[in-house]
Amino acid sequence: MNIHNASFLISAVKPNQYPKTGLMEFAFAGRSNVGKSSLINKILNRKSLARVSGTPGKTVTINFYNIDDTIYLVDLPGYGYAQRSKVEIEKWGKMMENYLANREPLIQTILLVDSRHKPTKDDMQMAQWIRHYHDRLIVIATKMDKLKKSEIEPNLERIWETLEMGEDDILVPFSIKNDEGKITVWDMIDMMRQGEMLEDEE
Fold it and tell me: pLDDT value at position 45?
């Protein structure tokens, strides 16, 4: 997919703030600081389109990025940040569930997990949410460049097993330090945009 124009559209906290154009949406979910914004910047070949924060839990809005007036990439607020209050966590949960359950243009939610660590209970819960609302689970293992060669295969196997991934699910190793996974992510989005991956399920 050749990108000519990528732009930030809006940070939304309520459904009435979501874009009303009806363009397909592909959302990225994951723990705070897992690298969602960095991934979006990487696959779009932009240095700072998506706002990268060194402070975990900073993103508490749903951020929409317009790609060539064709699709939206959606950066969902991170979960699992211990410093958030109970009220903030409940607000996050309602926002996320409302978006996942009711957002008609949403084609696929993609889960990001840190390749260095075993997926957390929050990751497992998000995986279940994604399975409930979509046909398959797509997981991107971030920060692959931080692993030793000997750690790569066992760590990917640990992610696969912990999230109970099946034959129709997809696990993509990804690194912002090089192009690992970048083309694969775009190919998946492009196939889903054209309905090819969805037709496979029928």
Answer: 87
Give 31's strand partners.
Answer: 79
Under the banding of pLDDT at 50, 70 and 90, the label for residue 103 is: very high
- What does the DSSP 8-state code read for residue 76? P
Closest by CA position to 156, among listed 134, 135, 171? 171
| Residues in contact with 119: Cβ distance below 8 Å, sequence separation at least 6, in sequence order | 113, 127, 158, 159, 162, 163
Domain 6-196 has CATH 3.40.50.2000: no
Whole-angstrom distance, CA of residue 4 vs CA of residue 198: 26
- Report yes or no: 171 and 160 within 8 Å, Cβ to Cβ: yes
What is the per-residue pLDDT for 68? 94
Which residues neighbour 82 within 8 Å (Cβ) at sequence distance 6 or greater? none
Query: Cα separation of 67 and 44, whole Å?
Result: 9
Question: Helix, strand or coil for residue 1?
Answer: coil
- Average pLDDT on 35-60 reads 77
Paired tokens of 197? 């991956």
Please give the full DSSP string across 147-194, using - where no structure is assigned: S-HHHHHHHHHHHHHHTT--TT-EEEE--SSS-TTHHHHHHHHHHHHT
